Amino acid sequence: MEKPHKKLDTWKISMDLVTEIYKLTNNFPEKEIYCLTPQIRRAAISIPSNIAEGAARNTKKEFINFLHIAQGSLSELDTQIEIAKRLEYLKENDWKSLDEMVIRIDKMLSGLIKQLKNSIKREG
Asked: Following DSSP, what letter does each residue of 47-96 receive, concatenated?
């Protein structure tokens, strides 16, 4: 089975983000085991998952829809890591590293959406 999402840099970097999120949330307080920790992990996991699902769809329009969902999850994650920073669960340098990854992925998703939309216009 060919897996087109694995060729996408956006998916690869999103997977790196998930790995970092898991490492950093392992250090969150025990009291967050049922609240912030799983919320952050779910949002992070949703990003490459939606990229992968969209890449497997039949049309570019469907792919774009899933990329928008991934952007929504990215925004959710951005808010959650800001909360973790304010609660001092994340060190400043760890938060900054995550923030840079979030910004990079957002730019990549926006670029991919634009590229797909332009491709649809050329075909139509």
From this structure: HHHHHHHHHTSSSHHHHHHHHHHHHHHHHHHHHHHHHHHHTTSS-HHHHH
Assign residue 28 a region (left: φ > 0; alpha: ψ between -120 and 50; beta: otherwise).
beta
- Give CB contacts under 8 A, 24+ apart, made by 45-49: 45/18, 46/70, 46/73, 46/76, 47/14, 47/17, 47/18, 47/73, 47/74, 47/77, 47/105, 48/5, 48/11, 48/14, 48/15, 48/17, 48/18
Identify whether the C-beta of residue 35 lies closer than 8 Å to the C-beta of residue 75. no
CATH of domain 4-123: 1.20.1440.60
pLDDT at 124 over 90: no
DSSP-assigned letter for residue 28: S
**95, pLDDT greater than 80:** yes
